[in-house]
Amino acid sequence: MTNFVFVSFQWNLVCQHAFKADLVQSVLMTGSLFGALVLGTLADKYGRRKIWYISFTGLIVFAFASSFAPTYKIYTLLRFLTGFFVGGEILSAFVLATELIGPSYRGFAGTMAQCFFTCGLLILPIIAYLVRDWRTLTVLLSLPFCVFILLFR
Fold first, then answer.
1. For residues 87 and 55, what is the distance between their CA atoms, to the nearest angstrom?
2. What are phi and psi of 143, to 5 degrees?
3. How big is the CA angle at 88 (ends 125 and 107), to the nearest 5 degrees?
4. Distance, CA of 37 to CA of 81 (rounded, Å)
5. 133 in helix, strand or coil?
């Protein structure tokens, strides 16, 4: 018997409710789609750096808050909002990173920017194995964003 505490066991998302565990990821990605559309448009109008900062702050707040969600419905709502701000953050950060580079190197710069995301995905299973509770894991994964945003004030 392991000491893992999963979201699916926390709210009994097994058997006929098993689809709800996957639904959360779909809701997060839907939020990301809407966030890219809404925040991308706002970034064009009000400036990418300002919207990037707002998006990054929203990402931190809602990712952190989702670790304290008392119910599945609130957790799903917080994951949608996290996704919303992820969509704005990724889009603004990518454009900011590639705008500063000459046209001949933009493709390379965009690819290299995504390498950090890939490295994070490679490290995540190790961290998840070491941190057995999903709430603690969510808080722990939110902390680096807090440090990062303080560096860009």
1. 8
2. -60, -45
3. 80
4. 14
5. strand
66: buried, middle or exposed (CB in 10 Å: 19+, 13-18, 0-12)? Answer: buried
- CB-hemisphere CA count at 13 Å for 51? 27
Residue 133 phi, psi dihedral angles, 5° rounding: -105, 130
Model confidence pLDDT, tens digit, residues 91-125: 888 888 888 888 888 888 888 878 888 898 899 99
Mean pLDDT of 144-151: 80
Note the pTM of the prediction, 2 decimals: 0.86
Contacts of 28 (CB under 8 A, 6+ apart): 79, 80, 82, 83, 86
Using H for helix, E for strand and C for coil, what is the string for 62-116? HHHHHCCCCCHHHHHHHHHHHHHHHHHHHHHHHHHHHHCCCHHHHHHHHHHHHHH
- Going by C-alpha positions, the residue among 35, 19, 37, 25 that lies closest to residue 66 is 25
Report the C-alpha gap between 130 and 127 in whole angstroms: 5
Task: Name the 3-class secondary structure at 153.
Answer: coil
Confidence category of residue 143, pLDDT binned at 50, 70, 90:
confident
